[in-house]
Amino acid sequence: MTYHKILTIQDISCVGQCSLTVALPIISACGIETCVLPSAVLSTHTAGFKGYTFRDLTEDMPAIKDHWVKEGISFDAIYTGYLGSTKQIDYVKDIFNSAAGEKCYKIVDPAMADNGKLYPGFDMEFVQAMKSLCGEADYIIPNLTEACFLTDTEYKAEYDQAYIDAILAKLLALGCKNIIFTGVSYAEGKTGVLVVENGSCTYYEHDKEPNSCHGTGDVYASAFVGALVRGKGAYASAKIAADYTVACIQETAKDPGHWYGARFEPVLGELIAMLRD
Asked: Rounded CA gap, 146 and 112, in Å?
């Protein structure tokens, strides 16, 4: 197996099982060297905790990148998650251009919205900047709400295939030709992932779990990135990531008091086994 090196750029929530505290162990479990660029450090994530601390690391990002360039450091994949500002998006574009290896995957999870709403602190200026970043990516991983914001489409909780097809066409118009569109449901009790790669569209459907967990989008994206860089292909990687995320949700359901994140660690062995198949 070729030994790959990934850079992931997102925040650190010290407690809360999301962002870098999810991406680093999951991608590492895939057998890949995982390098990190923290965009901010928070004592906890922002969903359900009160009085959390926040340190913005935006101004540290250019100097870190400059040091990598000086040392000749480059990456086989660059994967972005939660970014806190349009300035950080500009810095990521620079890193795409200066720290990417010869055949580097550029993967963007436009982590900015869910359930029909933008996350606190984001506005339409940020959405416009995220559109441009997605246009420079090789793969994007939006959920339905993010896809709607990226395409100026009205969010609908109930929809048909024509609605999703129209969104896909607008996403492709942003410039990224490979899309992993998560949380697409055509039937009650079911959900799935639409995979668009090089003009071909496939769909993986599975049962929808009755419970949900904070951070499952980060779990999914990280597992997808790890599988993709391991050479599994987009559809196989999307399926592995979906099956692993379901296993994490089921594991978390065993502990009703674990409300702040997904218990992904006890089922990492299942992810490793999926990668070996």
From this structure: 7
